[in-house]
Amino acid sequence: MSGRDEDSAGPIDLRSDTVTRPTAAMLEAMRTAPLGDDSRDGDPTVVRLEQRAAAMVAKEAGLFLPSGTMGNLLAVLAHVTRGQDVLVDPLAHLVTSEIAGLVGVAGVVPRTVASQAGRYDLAALAAALAAAPTARVGAGLVWLETSHNGAGGRVVPPGHVGEVCAMARQRGVPVHLDGARLFNAAVALGVPAGTIVAPVDSVMFCVSKGLSAPVGSLLAGSAAFIQRARALRRMLGGAMRQAGVIAAAGLVALETMVDRLAEDHAVAQRLATGLFAIDPTLVDPATVETNILRLDVSRTRRDARAWADILAEHGILVQASGAAQLRLVTHRHVDEAAADRVVATFAAAA
Question: Cα–Cα–Cα angle for 180, 253, 55, nearest 5°?
Fold first, then answer.
């Protein structure tokens, strides 16, 4: 295990893997990165990152962006005509956290399709794709997400991704994959990221979560798709200048931080096993596949906010999601000793 570095005496922050800080190698790369104006002649470090990212997911081209939310919005704008439907899982991050941009900026309609742990009911998806566009324009995009945040970091099998893409392709509908934590999914499956995303038309992934870069996400797809997305990025105010300063950290993240995500998964499993031993209704370790746990506290004496407050008093930060759920996300600043401390605190409070 890599340990909690310089933060071993500080709070255990499980609110998100976005709290990770850049490594020493990232900071050095940022200090020495060759720079240019990304929105004019191009920034050489950004170009390297975009090429590296596209190669890792086996797509023709990539585009560096400030955030994953912008990447997903650009995918919608580049693929979909205003008024069309985006067929999407009800628990997808697009619906729970990004819907304002989907509706207010892109002007498209989220049409939810029954799913379980990020996997569509294929019969329901087929019906949604085949629905006659009478009172609405019809499907313009099918949405996938892996690992799936709302489902507790569950991983969508590549076979299911292939089935969904085949069904959509028969109707001439593109498929986008929200892969904010794509490399967590790849590590959990033991396959290259490109294997997961091979059949999709576009993919977004972040370097600023478990990969520990301070800023940034990538959008990847065909050269024509990325050319359109690049123009739309400018429209949204996402064109950057000497962005190589942050792109350099993204390169280090992709080159050095992917394999160690397995450590975060192991810590998450240690947490799940310990919490299950306290109260089996909290979490089923068999459903913890990556670095996210969603705890059900509905059968305890406290609601989620009260649990979050109690844990905070002991230096443990978690996210309350509604009245009955806590989200815990492991990352490189949370080691096995920290996991044991979290479990012991739960046991004492319970």
Answer: 75
Task: Find the helix packing angle between 261-278 and 336-349, rounded to 10°.
Answer: 20
Q: What is the pLDDT of residues 93-141, one digit of tens each?
A: 999 999 999 999 999 999 999 999 999 999 999 999 998 666 567 899 9
| 203 DSSP β-pair partners | 177, 220
Q: Return the closest-CA partner of residue 333 out of 27, 67, 1.
A: 1
β-bridge partners, 295: 326
Phi and psi for 298 in degrees, rounded to 5?
-65, -25
Other beta carbons within 10 angstroms of residue 117's beta carbon come to 16
Q: Furthest-apart CA pair in the chain: how many Å?
A: 61
Packing angle of the helix pair 158-170, 122-130 (nearest 10 deg): 20
- Identity at 310, one-letter amino acid code: I
Question: 104: which DSSP letter?
Answer: I
Bridge partners of 321? Answer: 325
Whether 175 contacts 142, CB under 8 Å: yes
Tell me which fold the domain 24-256 belongs to.
Aspartate Aminotransferase; domain 2 (3.40.640)
Report which DSSP code applies to 101: I
318-344, pLDDT tens digit by residue? 999 989 999 999 999 999 999 999 999
Write the single-letter amino acid at 298: S
Please calculate the CA angle 308-313-315 and round it to the nearest 5 degrees.
90
What count of other Cβ atoms lies within 10 Å of the Cβ of residue 163?
A: 16
Whole-angstrom Cα Rg for the chain = 20
| Angle at 34 (CA atoms; ends 254, 231), nearest 5 degrees | 75
Per CATH, the homologous superfamily of domain 5-21+260-349 is Aspartate Aminotransferase, domain 1 (3.90.1150.10)
Q: How many CB atoms lie within 10 A of CB 211?
A: 28
Instruction: Tell me the pTM.
Output: 0.94
| Torsion angle in degrees (nearest 10) through CA of 135, 140, 145, 150 | -20
Helix or strand run (H / E) with residue 42:
none
Domain residue extents for the chain: 5-21+260-349, 24-256
